[in-house]
Structure formats: C-alpha cells, structure tokens
Design a protein that fits this description.
It is a single chain. By secondary structure, the chain is an alpha/beta fold. It contains 13 helices and 21 strands. The strands form 3 sheets. Strands 4, 14, 15, 16, 17, 18, 19, 20 and 21 form a 9-stranded mixed β-sheet that branches. An 8-stranded parallel barrel has the order 5-6-7-8-9-11-12-13, surrounded by 7 helices. Helix 5 packs across helix 6. 29% of the residues lie in helices and 25% in strands. It folds into 2 domains: 159 residues, Lyase, Ornithine Decarboxylase, Chain A, domain 1 (Beta Barrel); 234 residues, TIM Barrel (Alpha-Beta Barrel), CATH 3.20.20.10. The chain starts with 29 loop residues before the first strand and ends with a helix.
C-alpha cells in the first residue's frame, strides 16, 4: 500500500507497523511469543491487569543505564583536562522519591525549581549539598527553606535574588553558594517554548550585566560565588549552540576572574531524545567530547585554568525510559477534504496525562501493545477523551488497520514532562507511575481516585468524607 497523503513528510509508510525502533523504545522493549509488548521483563497485558490504564511505566534499568552512561561520558571527556564534572538530574522532567534515590545512588546531583520538588528530594534523604535550586521567581519562603536545608547551590536568576538569598543566608548564619544564570543570547535549534537563552524571555540576565551582579554577590559575606550558569534550551540536537554558549561564558568567566576565584562553570544541557525513528540523536560520548574540546580550546586561548564543569542533560536520562499505556475505546474514520481517511483512535487518557502534543505539537510513536497484527498499516491519530479538539496524544503514526476497541497501545519516550505536566482536567485522576525491572513491577506514585479529587473541594461534606473508600474503588473498577 502507498502512504496516506495526510501523513507528514517525515513519517514513512512502514513495512511492519508492529516494529519497535531501538532508538525510540527502552532497550528492554520486546515482543513476547504471543506478540504482546514487554518492558523491563513485564508484559503490557500483565501491567494492565495489575494497575489499569492510563499507566506511566518507567524502565528502571533504562533510567539507571542512561544516567550512568552520561555521568561516565562527561567524566572521561574532561579527565584529560584535569576537570571534575558533575551531572545534575532534572527534577522537573520527572520526580518521585524513588527516582531521586536512584540518581543519588548513581552519584548524580539533582536540580529542583520549587519548594514542592525540594520537599520530594528531602523526603528521599538526598544530601542537600548535592542539590541545585533553579527558578526565575523563587519565593522568599522557598529561598529561606533552601538556605536552611543547606542546598549546595542556588542559581540566581535575577539581580533581585542576590539580596534575598544574602539576607536568608545571614539569618541562618550560613555562607550560601550561588551561581549566576546568564542569558547568552544563543538561539538554540528547538521549539520556541523550549528555547531559554533568547533575548526576549524570562530567564537569566544579559552578559553585559554580569560584572555588576557578580560584584554585588562578592560584596556579601553570606554568599559564595561558584560561577556562571547557562541553559540555552531543551530537546536540542545541534551541538553548535552549546559550543557558542560555552565560548561566550568562558570569555565572561575569564573576565570575572580578575575579581576573585571562580571554581566552576555550569554549561547546562537539555540534550534531545528520539521521540520518533527520524530523530537523529548523537551518542552522548560524542556530545561530551565536543563539550570538552570547546572548553579545552577556549581555556587555552584565554590562558585560564579549566574550571570544574557541571552539566544538566535534562530529559535525556528519564525521557526514553518512560512508556505510557492506554486502552482503546472508540475508533472513527474521518474523510478529510474528500481525498483520504484519517483514523481517530480514542484512548482512556489524553492531554491530562500528556500535554506536550497540545502544547508543542510534539511528535510521538505509538504501537499496539497487547498483540501483533499482519493487517495493512493505517494512518492513525491517537486522541484523548477530553472535551477539546486539540486533545491529541499522537498526531501521526501508523498502526495495523485492524486496531479495535479494547486493544492496548503504548506510546514511547514519555518519561519526561508527561507526569510532571499532568492535570485533573475534566476531573480525571492522574495515572499511576510504576517502575519495571528484571520482570518485576512496583508502584512509584499511586493512581488518583475520585476520593482524592473530591476531598480538596470545600463543599465535600463530612458525611461524604465518611464514604468507604473501598466503595469508590469498587465503582471505579466496574466502570
């Protein structure tokens, strides 16, 4: 069969709509003898039976392997330069107590950007000295709490925060280490909403204002200036932007050395991942080598020592480790412009569990998860159940043409920015998150039920509060 004319140019008509592209799915993803998808040694039908759908599944082995590989790649690349490297896990991508513990065990630091994220990492027992606190508008209570806990570094995003952090540190009798976020002006090759170093946006301060800001930091006995910080965006494939940002920061770093020691430089990251088979992701070893080459060359040219380097890979650790499972409900063939049919496959989740498609027009990959089929591929659009025409989970992909109600489908690369952006739109409870590894599964975050949603409503009466939770759960299971 020929490709559907409604398909985007990048999406090839597949010979086998059951195939699993290795660049997109966790390394453990495979088909069982019956054709069901298996991740982390656990089959999708078994996960569906145990936990229901929608369901976020995190392959623990994949997450750990990716964290270890990134950590080791940067350590090896910078070792010849005599530079120590630190990798920060992005809490905003996905955070739970157990995941924070995984990263802690592997020697990664963790970024947080709110009091809530800080509370999760604190509950995980992570040493606060291994945390970085981001955010363009940290509240005064958040700053006070971070300082009191002894957070390793607070990233100053504006001049206003200098005084706020200095005062908090003085109140607690501490010397708080800080970084200064610089808006480098580098235009990263990514979605407009994911670019964070363009001139007209909310993050950081211009490089021209850095000398005065660093002088202000150094004027406070309660502050210690660690160095500069840059983050040009997220989901970036082109290394040219990273290289240019590093050159600009190192030039500023060299200039600021005249006023005192600067032990480190945070070069950010935000490395891209493969959401579809056409996404060309460079090996992390090559990325690390490119970073080290630029830093080494620039430091030599400027005649300065190579500082300690911090990296923030972003979604690259947890994103590819996640898969979201859904059950198919209704199917509708829509004739578009009297020329071709688009098949809408509606599932039991939607924009409340994956907002990225509506927010960024993000592309995803979907596959049948409970079986395989030799039916001809059909162009599908995976739609959610919310009352919005923009409620789409997967805009364009091919599934076997005999996809039917009751089938299970899996969407790949959903470990980052899906659960963390989840909502209760239309009063849907947020799905559970389970970890899979070596044939076993366990709950990381439990599913929200109707009782969870109702109990926050002030109109929920005391008698309603006494309703047996088992009754609610029984009703959910039968619906």
């Amino acid at each position: 069969m020929t490709a559907n004319p409604l398909a985007p140019g990048w999406l090839a008509h597949p010979e086998d709509a059951n195939g699993l592209a290795p660049s997109v799915w966790p390394a453990s993803a495979e088909r069982t003898e019956s054709g069901a998808l298996r991740v982390g040694g656990v089959s999708v039908p078994a996960l569906h039976a145990a936990y229901g759908t929608p369901l976020y599944v995190i392959d623990e082995g994949e997450a750990r392997a990716r964290a270890t590989r990134i950590r080791d790649a940067f350590a090896a690349a910078f070792e010849p330069l005599g530079a120590r490297t630190t990798v920060y896990y992005a809490g905003k991508a996905f955070l739970s107590i157990e995941v924070a513990r995984w990263m802690d065990e592997l020697g990664l630091n963790i970024d947080v950007c709110s009091g809530g994220e800080l509370a999760v990492v604190e509950a995980a027992g992570v040493d606060p000295r291994r945390l970085g606190f981001h955010g363009n508008n940290k509240s005064i209570p958040e700053i006070d709490r971070a300082v009191a806990l002894g957070v390793g570094a607070i990233v100053l995003d504006s001049v206003v925060e200098i005084e706020r952090v200095a005062q908090a540190a003085a109140r607690h009798g501490r010397v708080q280490a800080v970084r200064l976020r610089i808006n480098s002006g580098v235009h990263a090759s990514t979605h407009e909403y994911l670019a964070t170093a363009r001139e007209d946006q909310k993050f950081g301060i211009p490089a021209s204002e850095a000398p005065a800001a660093v002088a202000a930091i150094r004027s406070h006995a309660s502050l210690r200036f660690l160095g500069l910080h840059s983050h040009i965006g997220s989901q970036i494939f082109d290394s040219a932007g990273f290289a240019e940002a590093a050159r600009r920061l190192l030039a500023l770093h060299a200039e600021l050395l005249a006023g005192g020691d600067i032990p480190e430089l945070n070069l950010g990251g935000g490395f891209g991942i493969a959401y579809t088979s056409v996404d060309d992701v460079a090996p992390i070893e090559r990325i690390a080598g490119d970073f080290a080459a630029v830093v080494g060359e620039e430091c030599a040219r400027l005649g300065i020592a190579v500082p300690a380097i911090s990296i923030e890979p972003g979604r690259a650790i947890i994103g590819p480790a996640g898969v979201t499972l859904y059950e198919v409900g209704t199917i509708k063939d829509v004739l578009v412009a009297d020329t071709a049919v688009r098949r809408y496959v509606s599932v039991d989740g939607g924009m409340s569990d994956n907002l990225r498609t509506a927010l960024y027009h993000a592309d995803y990959t979907v596959r049948l998860a409970n079986r395989v089929s030799d039916a001809d591929p059909a162009l599908v659009r995976i739609a959610g159940k919310h009352c919005e025409s923009g409620d789409i989970v997967v805009r364009d992909d091919y599934l076997p043409g005999d996809v039917r109600p009751g089938d299970l489908v899996a969407v790949a690369a959903t470990g980052a920015y899906c659960w963390s952006l989840a909502s209760n739109y239309n009063y849907l409870g947020r799905p559970a998150v389970v970890a899979v590894r070596d044939g076993h599964s366990r709950v990381l975050i439990r599913r929200e039920n109707e009782h969870d949603l109702l109990r926050r409503d002030a109109g929920y009466s005391s008698s309603a509060e006494e309703i047996d939770i088992d009754t609610i759960l029984d009703r959910e299971r039968t619906e």
